[in-house]
Request: fold
Amino acid sequence: FAEKAHAGQFRKYTGDPYIIHPASVVDLVKTVPHNEAMIAAAWLHDTVEDTSLTIERIVSKFGLVVAVMVENLTDVSRPEHGNRKKRKAIDLEHIANAFPAAKTIKLADLIDNTRSIVRHDPAFARVYLEEKAALLEVLQEGDQNLYRLAQQTLREAQELLKGRGE
Reply:
C-alpha cells in the first residue's frame, strides 16, 4: 500500500525509489518492541504528508490506531504559517503530544533521514541537525534503545561535519 502511494517518488539525494526510506524506518522499528500497528504506521508515516492519501483513507484501510499514529507523525505546519523556523516549531509541538509508539517511529525516521542528509547534503545538514536536536528532546517517551541510537547518530553526524570543516 505504501509502495503504491509513493509510486513515482524518489529520494532527494540518491534518486532511489522513495519507498526505501519507509522500509528503513520499518527495519529500525523492528529492532525494538513493536506491534503490527506500529509497523503499518512506519510504512505509512509520510503518506499523508507527501501523497494524496488522507487520514480518513488510512482509517478506512488500516483502522483508527494506525491512522492516529500516522496523524501524530504528519507535519501540520503549512507555508502560510511562516518561515521554516516557525513551521518547525509548530511541528515540534505537534509531535511532542504524540503517543509513545509514534515517537518510537519518529526516532527511526530521524535516524534514517539524518544518515542520508549528512552524507548527501552537508550544507543543509547544519540546520537540519539543529532542528533534530530540538526534536530529540520531545521524543524521550519513545523506545529508549532507538532514543540512544538517535542521540548517537546526531553526535556522529555533528562530528563528521566538524571533521570536514563544515
